Amino acid sequence: EVQLVESGGGLVQPGGSLRLSCAASGFTFSSSWMHWVRQAPGKGLVWVSRVDSYGSSTDYADSVKGRFTISRDNAKNTLYLQMNSLRVEDTAVYYCARAHLYSSLSWGQGTLVTVSS
Amino acid sequence: DIQMTQSPSSLSASVGDRVAITCRASQSISNYLNWYQQKPGRAPKLLIYAAFSLQSGVPSRFSGSGSGTDFTLTISSLQPEDFVTYYCQQTYSTPFTFGGGTKVEIK
Predict the structure, then answer these.
(1) Which residues pair with B98 in a beta bridge?
(2) Tell me, what's the pLDDT at A111?
(3) A108: which chain B residues are within 8 Å (Cβ-Cβ)?
(4) Residue A41: what pLDDT?
(5) Which of A26, A41, A103, B91 is 20–30 Å from B1 (CA)?
(6) Burial of B21: CB neighbours in 10 Å, binned 0-12, 13-18, 19+
(7) What angle do CA B97, B101, B106 make, to 5 degrees?
(8) B91, B97, B102: best mutation site toward chain A, by most A Cβ within 10 Å?
């Protein structure tokens, strides 16, 4: 069974940092492109970032570029999102997702990040 | 960036009704369009990929159509579990933008 389990969310002050992890199982992680998508409370879905299967090619939304870094450890079947200089508007549930054909996504259950003083 | 305009933002319907949700891209995206369903408090679930391909395990009452800039998700006969929120997403070019969502409510 395919599983994506996010962790690392929590409460952080503005300007702080947090690292999210996503443990993958049930599929060949090292062959899969991976994404992060977020959803602010009561709002819609917003694509955040993606990384290729090797970890060498990355893309970011403009709103997080220069502050967030996506990475992966294929030996540990784990995806990461390092989030620095966090802002109140980064408050959201963060989902990791596996890309399939046409970059369609299958999702983890999400982890909540709250940025507040 | 490609903008995705989804309409309506909400609709009211009854069990058994046929409903259609549309998504318009600000430029041609070929058929790089996916549809997701999201239940309250849950992660989104893939319904349709590549504009019209039904994801494995998804009921056949869901169908997708369109190409270029205009796309439609159709539910042929609404079931009680279908009264939730739907999103489109373009994956033609990054950032992979989503539509604003359509909440389907019981009339």
Answers:
(1) B89
(2) 98
(3) 43
(4) 97
(5) A41
(6) buried
(7) 165
(8) B91
